[in-house]
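Hey all, quick one. A colleague (J.T.) asked me to put the magnesium ion job into the tracker so the inputs and the structure tokens live in one place instead of scattered across chat threads. No bug as far as I know, just bookkeeping. Sequence used:
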Amino acid sequence: METTIVIKNLTKKFGNVIAVNDVSLTIEPKTFLTLLGPSGCGKTTLLRCISGLEDPDEGEIYIGDKLVYSHVKGVSIPSGQRDLGLVFQNYALWPHMTVYKNMTFALEIQKLSKEEMKKRVTEALAEVKMSGYEDRYPREMSGGQQQRIALARMLAYRPRVFLMDEPLSNLDARLRMDMRTELKRLHHISDATTVYVTHDQLEAMTMSSNIAVMKEGVIQQMDTPDKVYHFPANLFVADFIGNPKVNLLEGWITGPDLVDLGKFNVPVFTFSHTGDVVVGIRPEDISVSTHAIDGGVEFITYSVLPTGADTTIIARKGDTELTIKEIGVSKLQMDQKIWLTFNKDAINLYDKATGNLITH
Amino acid sequence: MAVISNSRLSASEKWTAVMRRFLRWLTTPHVILSIIMLAVMIYLVIIPLYRMIMTTITVQDIDLRVLKDSEVGDFTWYHWVRMLTSKIAKIMTYEPLVHSIVVSLGATMFALVIGGLMAWMVVRTDMPGRNTIHMLATIPYIMPSWTIAMAWTVIFKNRTTGGTPGLLEYILGTPPPDWLAYGPIPIIVSSGLHYYTFFFLFVSAALLSIDSSLEEAGELAGAGRWRIMRKITFPLVVPAIASGFIMTFSKTMGTFGGPNVLGVPVKYYTLSTMLRSNTGIGNYGDGFVLAIILILFAMTTIMINQKLVGTRKSYETIGGRGFMSQKVKLRNFKGLLTGMVVVFQFLIAILPLVVLLYSTFMLRTGDFSLSNFTLAHWIGKGDISINNGEPGVLRNPKIYLGAWNSIRLSLLTALFTSILGVILGYAIVKGRGTRLSKLVEQMAFIPYVIPGIAFGAVYISMFTKPVGPIPPLYGTFALLVIVSVAKHLPFSARTGVSAMLQVGKELEEAAAIAGASPWRRFVRIIFPLTSTGFVSGFLLNFISTMRELSLIILLVTPTTAVLASMTMRYIENGNEQQADAVILILIFLVLIGNFIISRFRGGSLKKGLGM
Ligand SMILES: Nc1ncnc2c1ncn2[C@@H]1O[C@H](COP(=O)(O)OP(=O)(O)OP(=O)(O)O)[C@@H](O)[C@H]1O
Ligand SMILES: [Mg+2]
């Protein structure tokens, strides 16, 4: 199943709201693409446009080599003929049908034989570890189980493309972790091109092969999770990805590879840029020393927040505040003098005017 | 795959694209259904209204005696001038208008006071027997609206109109005064006692939904009881009162039964009874002027009310969540007040039935002694000295025909109303947010603002002549079904919409993605999930059509008569006992229907009282 999805200049408006704004992207076969962004940024709308449940206002969509939507050509293939599966946030299991009936609804339409249907259902249930639940009604199962059935219903009719809209958001934290593992495996086994919507960055980072970060209907950056995390394309992405948040500090370039942040300087690769910039430093890229060291900047701890695996430290120098992450349990006290050094390789530099990443 | 860029498309390709997009829109199921429903509603509501207006400004056959030089169909202001400015305008138009206002306003206020007080006592005091009171409170509304009026005449009538004395005069020996026997006061009281159920249910629901912690918060903040009432309780109950007000007022404006039984004998005409007497003699031009006045009046009231409160807001209070609240202690008054409520409910729920039943056993009216006892009105073989020779109701084929007509009218109306409800609900909900959907919803609302009897009048003008391929339907049974279905359109739309809203749109979308056609989605997903809502809507429609009178009184003929209209005909012919027997049969049928409903969904009338 080698299915590429190509989206060209897609726009969808609701009245005055532009939910999806001139989006173009190519989703390679077997990709697990996650649409990530804050609430209301247009993730669901984009997904629904691909599925055919929403008719866009502009643009074109190809699934495989089939043109499924084109505004200028007046083409729009109904969702049922796009050969895709969609898992809804609230599962959308039909409450008046048993698990078996839920799963065979689409198979009946495809006119499969009874034996084939049975085989497909058994297989799909096994894949989501729900064998033996054929005769249950949705209301007789827990949220997590319903979630698995919703997945199995999609798996049973073997679409070329999997679409999922925040399928895990109604589950508790524990179950969510389990389901992530399962989903990632399912994708690994099936190799279906997958588009996954979430506003949970951890979900996006852990499962995806690619992440598209959206804001106000526009895709800000589409890259591998690693690139999105370490080289955010602009201040929005930098700020949105990472927990605790990235430190963003305003300053200006004073010399080659040196940025003045007002109270202190940091070493940064400036690629011969000049002028006002914003420096982005991830909390884990700052090292802490309890005594004065060469090149260290003196700060005072303001609050120390251990979680067990790591510790978040809030440190201040005048009105400049930094968030620092240390592995393990820190021995630092509150209101203690510390000296910070910065990992030059890991610092990103952004143009203050445009907010875009400065590269060579 | 060849990708053609926008600019390289030829004009004809662009045209094809536009056509494809248009066709796609047009073949969306909810768009098709919306367009069909618009056509149906234009035919059922707009064209009849238009025809009615046209009738009032053209010359009719009956006018030729006066307008000698004109021909039928010529434009004329004759009817409007006659009804609004001539010498007879006072009797024909203005007095009935004033009477209608007096009666509706009076009945509404009366119902408000009783319903509001009872609701407050049941919800906010420690009065015992709340569930019983609640159940009894719905009984008057279940019965036909003119039941109490008919029982009233049995008790209070005097010999002013030349008839026999009532029960009161029989017992006391002196006749009750005219104001108590006939006219506005009895009409107001008897309709108020029918409609108080609206207020009772709405206000008690609203009171239940008020979180008493709001009031307690007020109390803690140091506000006095009166201040709490005014600032917290009252604003929360006002919407409920307002919706009860609109419903009761618009219903009583168009009501025919009560004013016909208690007003007409002393020439106390309201717009509805005057409308009937005009159309009864074929004077449609004048009659329709009254109908239009009635419609305008009802519309204005409803609009003013909506401006002041907003219907949306008023419905939200209904069915709010119940909160436990601090009960007012009645202390020493507990026994007394409870007794009063019980007696009152007995008086209006049970006594009318007893009185009506008693009267059917009287050989001659006016003689309440046991020596006058007879079963002739029920099972008599037809003695020429009794009821002009008509047999007892249980042996009378006309009654069976009427009962059968009532039942099949109600069944057919309920059936079609449910079907339209499914379609309207789907069209409106799936199209939510589009102008088309809004238009459908608003048009379905129109019959709500047209009082029952005026709505009936609209249909006379429509169907006395053929319309396109449809033959003249006046006098046919089909017309009764059509008018009842059309009048129930708002109810259809509301049940349909609320049933459809129960089904999350994802459920249908999931089926669409699985490749199901719209028809398959409807049959396999939507219909099974909404059917319970429609079944209870069906039953409610069944009983509400059964006791409908104002709507069809202008349209029935002897062969299409239903039980409701027969009660009026017997009264007008002076066969009081037979009328009483017929209304008891009608009540019996309605109670059976209601019993089935309460079986079906646990006894609550609240949800369906909407219209
Ligand atoms: N049917 C609709 N009618 C009108 N506006 C809509 C509709 N659907 C979405 N919108 C608007 O379009 C924008 C994008 O909505 P969308 O549902 O795609 O956001 P989202 O990224 O999925 O958000 P969330 O994370 O909250 O689910 C929002 O501003 C929303 O209010
Ligand atoms: Mg969403």
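Adding what we noticed when we looked at it: Chain B has two domains: 29-47+383-611, 87-269+329-373. DSSP finds 26 helices and no strands in chain B.
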